[in-house]
Amino acid sequence: MHPNQLILASASPRRKTLLDDMGLAFAVQVTNVEEDDRPHLKPDNLVLNNAILKAESVAKEAPDALVLGSDTTVAFEGRIFSKPQDLNEAMQMLETLSDQWHEVYSAISLRWTNGDFKESFYEVSQVKFRALTPSIIRKYHSRVNPLDKAGAYGIQEASDLIIDSIKGSFNNIMGLPTELLANQLKKHGFNFFTD
C-alpha cells in the first residue's frame, strides 16, 4: 500500500520550488490554519507544532495522500523572529541580527491518514549576518519583500548584501530541509520522485 499522491500543504513559493528541484511529483493545497505563535515556545516546538497543524488540516480532506506540512522560524538569543508585521519590525529584526549568528529552524510533518502514518522532524542551520547599516537594510528591503519571510529575509534573494556565512543546509534556511525529507521518503518507501 502506498499513498496515491504527495500534497504540499503550503502556499510558499520557496517550498514549491525546493520540491520541484528535488524532482518530486506533488500537488499543492493551501491551508488556512491559525499558526501557533505562543511566545513561550522553544523554536523547535513552534515549527513542529505549526508543521503538524498544516499537515493535519489537509490530511483530513485527503486521507489517501501523503501530506507534507512545513514551518520555518528564526531564533536569536531565545527570541523567535517570525514573519514581521510591517517594514519597521522588519528593519528592527535585521538590526538585531546584524553582525550576529542566529539559528533557522525548519520542520516537516508527514501525514497519511489511511496508512496511519505520522512523522515529524526538524533541522537547524546557522546564519551569520554581515554588519548591517540602516542604508544596507533599506537597500535589501527595496529588493526583497521581507513581510512573507521568517526573520525578515530570504537566503535565496540578494543574500550578498546581508549574509556573511552559513553552517548547515542552505535549503533548510530557505524553508525546507530537503536532504532530511529525501531520506525520510526513501526510508519509508514513499516514491514520488519523477525520475
Description:
The protein is α/β, with parallel strands linked by helices and about 200 residues long. About 30% of the residues lie in helices and about 25% in strands. It has a single domain, classed as Alpha-Beta Complex (Maf protein). It has 6 helices and 7 strands, in the order βαβαββαββαβαα. β1, α1 (about 15-20) and β2 form a beta-alpha-beta unit. The longest helix has 17 residues, at about 45-60. It is elongated, with a radius of gyration of 17 Å.
Brief sketch in words of this structure:
With 195 residues, the protein is of the alpha/beta class. The protein has six helices and seven strands; from the N terminus they run E-H-E-H-E-E-H-E-E-H-E-H-H. A hairpin with a 2-residue loop joins strand 3 (66-76) and strand 4 (79-81).
Query: What shape does the CA trace take?
Result: elongated
Binned strand content: 25-35%
Mean pLDDT over the residues: 94
**CATH topology annotation:** Maf protein
Q: How many individual helices?
A: 6
Major β-sheet, in short? 7 strands, mixed
Question: Mind telling me which CATH architecture this is?
Answer: Alpha-Beta Complex
